[in-house]
Design a protein that fits this description.
By secondary structure, the chain is of the alpha/beta class. The chain has 13 helices and 5 strands. The protein has 2 domains: about 230 residues, no CATH class; about 90 residues, no CATH class. Strands 2-1-3-4-5 form a 5-stranded mixed β-sheet, sandwiched between helices. α10 runs parallel beside α13.
Length: about 325
């Protein structure tokens, strides 16, 4: 075990010495800051409203001027539309006014705008307004939730990237030949790499997700314990990234070229898995990257099962890592554990 920890310490020194690896370690913090600064520009599009038949025409006219209006047959249909994944405010007629229906997790500008619009109509001699929540929720919009899941997930991917660069350093420094005949077997070598990835993921993943949720979700509602469990489920994804790049790249230049392609896949598949729903979502079921991100996504939602996607991430990830490790050992010419 002492050999494993010594090797992890060596990897940490290499990572801090390599500029590219250092950038990777600080990348999630910068990404969170930039995302929080720019997110309002992407999460405040033209508002969308669901209106039940029979709603005050003055209210409907005011809504049309300020956003997209979808007319539905009755209040029940409006409630179902408001409870859908995207952020929509609902309106239904009352005996003496208009009812505003909100899910409760819409961005602030959507929660405030309907009341302003209906108040304008009421000021013209119209009837009073009643507000109702279609469901209780937290103020976390869909896009914000997706990006939070990606930020928490990507920490393991960056951990794998950092570890792959340490493997490249060992190749370029000629130390792999010495390691292959040293007491450090390949099993211990891979364990050291996996633990180093795990430390990076645990240090950056929950912190990145919490940074995305800071000020949006009350601190007491953060499921930090489940977020750690979900982060553990991302370990196979990080190790898969590290093993693939470490096995096939011969120097930093080829590693960067390989990373360009792999990072597109390792970030694109999870994001597509979040966006695609229904039967098509099953197309992502074989990929551990999909389930790892789904586990993070579940951990930031209230009362959503985290163990199921976390278990699937492990079940799909362990065989993939085993195959990548077998290829890695052959290509590195490493002795058996």
């Amino acid at each position: 075990m002492s050999r494993i920890f010594s090797f992890m310490a060596k990897d940490a020194r290499v990572a801090l010495r390599e500029n590219l690896a250092t950038y990777m370690l600080f990348g999630p913090i910068v990404l969170v800051l930039l995302t929080r600064l720019t997110l309002p520009f992407f999460t405040e599009p033209s508002p969308r409203f669901a209106v039940a038949a029979g709603t005050d025409p003055a209210v409907v006219e005011a809504l049309v001027r300020r956003g997209e209006v979808e007319t539905l047959p009755d209040r029940a249909a409006v409630v179902a539309r408001v409870n859908a994944e995207d952020d929509v405010a609902g309106f239904a007629p009352l005996d003496a006014g208009t009812e505003v229906l909100l899910e409760g997790n819409e961005p602030g500008y959507i929660q405030e705008l309907p009341g302003f619009i209906v108040d304008q109509a009421a000021a013209k001699g119209r009837a009073a307004v009643a507000f109702a929540h279609a469901d209780e929720g937290r103020s976390l919009g869909t896009i914000h939730a997706w990006l939070t899941a990606i930020m928490g997930y990507v920490a393991a991917v960056l951990g794998g990237t950092v570890v792959s660069l340490t493997v490249i350093d060992e190749k370029e420094g000629g130390t792999l030949a010495a390691l292959s005949s040293s007491p450090l077997g390949f099993g211990e070598y891979l364990t050291a790499k996996a633990l180093f990835i795990g430390l990076i993921a645990l240090a950056l993943g929950p912190a990145s997700a919490a940074g995305m949720l800071w000020g949006v979700v009350p601190l007491g509602e953060l499921r930090l314990g489940w977020l750690v469990v979900a982060t553990v489920a991302t370990f196979p994804t990080g190790l898969l990234m590290g093993a693939l790049v470490g096995a096939f790249a011969e120097d930093q230049l080829s590693a960067i070229g390989l990373l360009k392609g792999l990072l597109t896949v390792f970030s694109g598949v999870p994001f597509a898995g979040l966006a695609v729903t229904g039967a098509w979502a099953m197309a992502f079921a074989p990929f551990t990257l999909h389930w790892a991100c789904q586990a993070i996504f579940a951990a930031i939602q209230p009362d959503v099962d985290v163990l199921r996607p976390a278990l699937y991430a492990m079940l799909t990830g362990i065989p993939a890592v085993a195959a990548a490790a077998w290829v890695m050992r052959r290509r590195l010419g490493y002795a058996a554990a």
